[in-house]
Amino acid sequence: MPEANSHHPYAITLDVGSSLANKTGSWRTERPVYLDRLPPCNDACPAGENVQEWVARAEEGDYEAAWRQIMVDNPFPAIMGRVCYRPCETACNRATLDEPVGINSIERFLGDEAISRGWSVVVEAPPTGKNVLVVGAGPSGLSAAYHLALRGHQVTVRDDSPEAGGMMRYGIPSYRLTRDVVDAEIQRIVEMGVRLELGTSVTDLGDALVDFDAVFLAVGAHVGRRADIPAGDSARIVDAVSMLAGLAKGEQPLLGRRVAVYGGGNTAMDVARTARRLGASDAIVVYRRTRERMPAHDIEVREALDEGVRMRWLSTIVYAGADRVRIEKMRLDESGFPQPTGEFEELDADSVVLALGQQADLALVRDLPGVEIADGVVQVDGRMMTGHAGLFAGGDMVPGERTVTVAVGHGKQAARNIDAWLRSATYEHPERPELATYDRLNTWYYADAPATLRPQLDVARRITSFDEVTQGLTAENALFEARRCMSCGNCLECDNCFGVCPDNAIIKLGPGQGYEIDLDFCKGCGLCAAECPSGAITMIRERS
Amino acid sequence: MPVQRIKFYQTGSFAVGNRLLDPDQRSVQADTERTNSLTMGHRACQGCGEALGARYVLDAVMRATGNHAVTVNATGCLEVFSTPFPESSWRVPWLHSLFGNAPAVATGVAAALKAKGRTDVRVVGQGGDGGTVDIGLGCLSGMFERNDDVLYVCYDNGGYMNTGVQRSGATPHGAVTTTTPAGNSFRQGKSLPLIAMAHRIPYVATATVADLRDLEYKATRAMEFHGARYLHVLVPCPLGWRTASSETIQIARLATETGSFPVFEAVDGEVTDVTRIRRLRPVEDYLRPQGRFAHLFGDTPRGDVISSIQAEADRNIRTFGLVETTEVS
């Protein structure tokens, strides 16, 4: 306290001072703390992308930085933007508010930008002198090769097909994934120094394990599952995987005008839609359960229906003849399993395509000591390693959902662990922060904005050509879409905390630097945490 | 496909600032160089809406006037918590006289500045709802009548909170105070914005601490006028409303979203613009979180009082057109 002073007017005894002397921080029982919570998109991404982070870069209009952030985890942004089933959008908190952010369409835009501008990735790690063999040039193998190359290892990829890409080239029809995109994204990996040996079969893994320091096996699941359908002599029965692969190699499958597709997965949709494009007037999907129970993703089913594909739910094919099939109606029992009803029907069909699932060809590993096979797939541990030391596996040949994105994730995971294994270390996954659930957000602050839809080809052109069905966003649309992101669980520098503090106790550190709490004056009211749009502040109790 | 105009940055215009916005499009409060007219170290309760509202208004006024503003404060929370002798939290010229005479003192300051030829310096009078709608009403009405060149700001927290939460003329219907322990039965009380409009002064506006952009716009707009202007700001009081200190802004938001507190502006006594309700909610959503209305939801729920409060909100919605109608013309 200032001393009394004779210069003061009558009855005034103290000098005037600022309230800054009064440190109100001592009132506090709780303090705000900035934190990063795990956004649901990141949590859901099978490839482990830091979605929220790259969308934030895209929001700033820095598309190259956004693309590079995707490339940290996934070497195929343009492919992802076309074929990923978007678990991120399913998980997106914005869906609760209006519609999910079109993450996939932004990713495609970034991927296409990268291809048209020729952005590439440079290996900065010094060469390790280690050699790794990747068997299979599909999404999983190429992803592993990319991530291993980034870490300085010499990678050789062998595949017995004439071209690289696996199911991305020989399974997914070109109207969903154009081949120039596949070529461009694979070429980028080759340019990083990955050796691609195509048309080369690996027959003996034992030798390979001697020649290489580690082996990643990703041969996929290319063998169509057969069903014993009694068939007449002239019945035409084809399997879906071979048909799609043949088509990709330039063959013209002879399916006729009326095609029955047997199965209810994404491959069944691919086949039916392909048949329409090849001139079939009738493409009928025959599936033994209901639409709700179809393994095919909803968007595939919708697009197939748009293109005039017909569906026969609750039906099995019991006999295939030359120009017709006999189907039996099914009903679902209490456990949801289809049971025969004894009611039969005839259906016109010049051919039957079996899309009943795929199996992995496991001949390579069947006799390898230590390798465990169960349910038709190779078993791996948390490091993606098989029971045989130094032999890792991923993609469709190991347990898990069989999608391109999951395969890419396996490749990354395997690469991290192979890298650690080569250094006689173990890879430790960083701890996952708590999830940024919707109730953590203050959504009042987000302006109302419906999602931007990607244009689609009209149906007439879709069923007469293999042109890409879904088009990309323009730069402006992509920017708009990115800015719909709510940045769940991560500070987006909106200045709300800085603005709403009644005690000026938030210090703004400048662009990209975030904020700090001035604990001398913070009374712990909690307004900053309550009004933080993205849920990036929490209140913790002060210790007494 | 239609081209979508990029009209917002992620959190749109509802957040205080945004790293992607041009600095001149951000709010005054987003600026590290803001005046901080009411700075830290003040003794307002945790989560005080009035401390927040006063800084919002005066920082905007300071920016609008190029830091040429003088403040005259009525007695009340704002005066007491900011200036315990010999400390002051004010970083603006600030004068305090009595409880009921702030509008008259402000008039005098304006007259003195005019006499000295200092037309560049603007005057802001301010006080709580007690000092404004009750004790200072006579002085304020005179200031309006004479059209003195003063912006008067009322920070309305619905009671005499500083002296221990007594009822004021602005205490809402049904609210418990220490002088209305069974709930305020005087219905909605005085609407000073409407009284001010009846004087046909150049500018009258209402705002809340829940919509900073709107509040700053109105404080800035008020400085474009000369003559008597009135700004009525709803500032929740965690102590008197018995809410958590972290709920201050949320409660103010609910007051507007339920129609309990209409947000509008009026020029020359005519309503020229209203802030429409974004997500209309029943008044119960506004009342239930507040301890001062707890008795309405207790063992003997007072459905009659709640419906009468709802009717008052509905009347606001109708009178001011707070909900966008989708009628086909």
TrEMBL record, chain A:
It comes from the Bacteria. One of its GO terms (molecular function) is iron-sulfur cluster binding. Residues 482-512, 513-542 form the 4Fe-4S ferredoxin-type domain. Gene3D superfamilies: 3.30.70.20, Alpha-helical ferredoxin, FAD/NAD(P)-binding domain. Transmembrane segments: none annotated. This is FAD-dependent oxidoreductase. PANTHER family: GLUTAMATE SYNTHASE [NADPH] SMALL CHAIN (PTHR42783), GLUTAMATE SYNTHASE [NADPH] SMALL CHAIN-RELATED (PTHR42783:SF3). The keyword Iron applies.
UniProtKB/TrEMBL annotation, chain B:
Gene3D superfamilies: 3.40.50.970. This is Pyruvate ferredoxin oxidoreductase. It holds the Pfam family TPP_enzyme_C. GO terms for molecular function: magnesium ion binding; oxidoreductase activity; thiamine pyrophosphate binding. Keywords: Oxidoreductase, Pyruvate. The lineage of its organism: Bacteria, Bacillati, Actinomycetota, Actinomycetes, Propionibacteriales. It comes from the Bacteria. Residues 75-233 form the Thiamine pyrophosphate enzyme TPP-binding domain.
